[in-house]
Amino acid sequence: MAEQTQEVPIQLAADYLVVGAGAMGMAFVDEILTSDAAATVVLVDRYAGPGGHWRRSYPFVSLHQPAAFYGVNSETLGRGGKSLASGVEVIGYFQRVLEKHIASGRLSFYPHCEHTHAKEFTSSVTGAHYSVAVKRKLVDATYMKVEVPSMRKPPYRVAHGVKVVPPNALADISSPYAGYVVVGAGKTGMDAVLYLLGLGLNPDLITWIMPNDAWLLDRGNLHPDGLLQTLGKQQESMARSESLEALLLNLEADGMLMRIDESVWAEKYRCATVNRQELEQLRRIKNVVRSGRVVSIEDSQVILEQASLNVAKQTLFVDCSANGLSNRPIVPVFAPDKITLQSVSMCQQVFSAALIAYVETAFTDVDMQNDLCRVVPHPESIDDYLYAVRVGAINNASWGKHLPKWVRNARLSFRSHIPTWRLFSKMPKMAKLAPLVNKNLQAMTQQREAQKAAAK
User: Fold this and answer.
1) How confident is the model at residue 186, as a pLDDT?
2) Are residue 363 and residue 287 in the same domain, yes or no?
3) CB atoms inside a 10 Å sphere around CB 369
4) Nearest Cα residue to 139 out of 344, 311, 338
5) Does a structural domain hold residue 326?
């Protein structure tokens, strides 16, 4: 019997092996190749091209914040100002960025490949096995585990014959249903509701299962011309708020935050963003079910954690329950031979990835690199929001001391969109409020910890 021989891996070499060509991976690669003119990268992804979850999102998806702050530093996305960008535009944009860097001769891209072990990966199409001699670091751009509904099955039992679809399928509806049930209250759920209403559907035919209420950001404040005023209002609210509850209510009174139902206290904060017109549309849905998460969907009935719901037989269920950017355990961004991409600025993932890449090129001490890149996990609860604000303030102070020029000029940075003279005009007042803000944030944290301890 002939002895079976193991296939010899194809040998590659590069300074960095980046696993994941999603938005964060692309922002990192772009900055590392821009900041270090000699760097080389091998980029691996399981999909056919760059863009990550954008390739699996629903056809009517778009950015929730202005395109001015999204993408990579070296390439403008969209028309600027308040304009957003569709999912199709985003995918095409990342493809152009990829091709630009491939043309430089310093980036090699391997699509349809699975990272298997350390510095090795395998083609899902040919079965070819690759081994990379990494001169500097392995970069994990998949740690955030971005997930959209089309990437997995619903996390609850579905009886045979019940029609449960991801929001992608809404674009292919060919006949009306007796009713529509949207499962999930995050931004995907909001998008599904807005899409159905935009088609002219009677809001009374929509049931919205909303396990948790969340604070929403007003997109009208998140544009280049309004950023300084927004940042100023946030700081003023923090300076006059002595509890987290008071802070959230003050931010709402100042027009910074919103709730779908102002009579329901919101315990969640996920950086979901809508404008005032969209909020009014969402409020047209009166069949809102707040009885916990779905346990199972049976024939003509939905079993929830705290109740059950009867529905018509010809009902379409739209599963929007994927967590998107989940709150992942914090691990150090920098290790001697590895970088794990995570957010270092609240809800600004691509900016975070680009900043991490710059820190990699500008500093060599791992402890210093991690001090500059304290992780700010994607928030889920109002306590996560409080934590993110506190750590974000520490990071911003460090960046102002050690890399102010980069932050000032980086396209993905909010600060780069604020005229210097306007920023300087606000600095004295912001500096005056800073000690009180820090004091209040610390007091809020202690209060919340005491409340949690008392509740146990």
Assistant:
1) 92
2) no
3) 19
4) 338
5) no
> Is residue 271 within 8 Å of residue 217, measured between CB atoms?
yes
124 in a domain, yes or no? yes
Query: Does residue 46 form part of some domain?
Result: yes
Write down the pTM of the prediction: 0.95
The per-residue pLDDT for 226 is 79
Residue 251 structural domain: 220-258+419-456
pLDDT, tens only, 322-378 = 877 777 889 999 999 999 999 999 999 999 999 999 999 999 999 999 999 999 999
Question: Cα–Cα distance between 277 and 107 in angstroms, integer?
Answer: 43
Asked if residue 204 lies in contact with residue 286, where contact means CB atoms within 8 angstroms, the answer is yes
339/385 same-domain check: yes
Distances (CA, A) of 143 to 40, 56, 118, 315, 403: 22, 18, 14, 36, 25
Number of domains in the chain: 3
Condensed to tens digits (0 to 9), the pLDDT of residues 21-71 reads: 999 999 999 999 999 999 999 999 999 999 999 999 999 999 999 999 999
In a shared domain, residues 229 and 359: no
The pLDDT mean for the chain works out to 94
Residue 142 near residue 353 (C-beta atoms within 8 A): no
Task: Name the token pair of 429.
Answer: 């007042």
- Which stretches of 275-398 are assigned E, i.e. beta strand? 287-289, 294-298, 301-304, 308-310, 315-319, 334-335, 338-340
Examine residue 4 and state whether it is found in any structural domain, yes or no: no
CATH number at residue 45: 3.50.50.60
Q: Determine the Cα–Cα distance for residues 133 and 128; give it in Å rounded to an integer.
A: 17
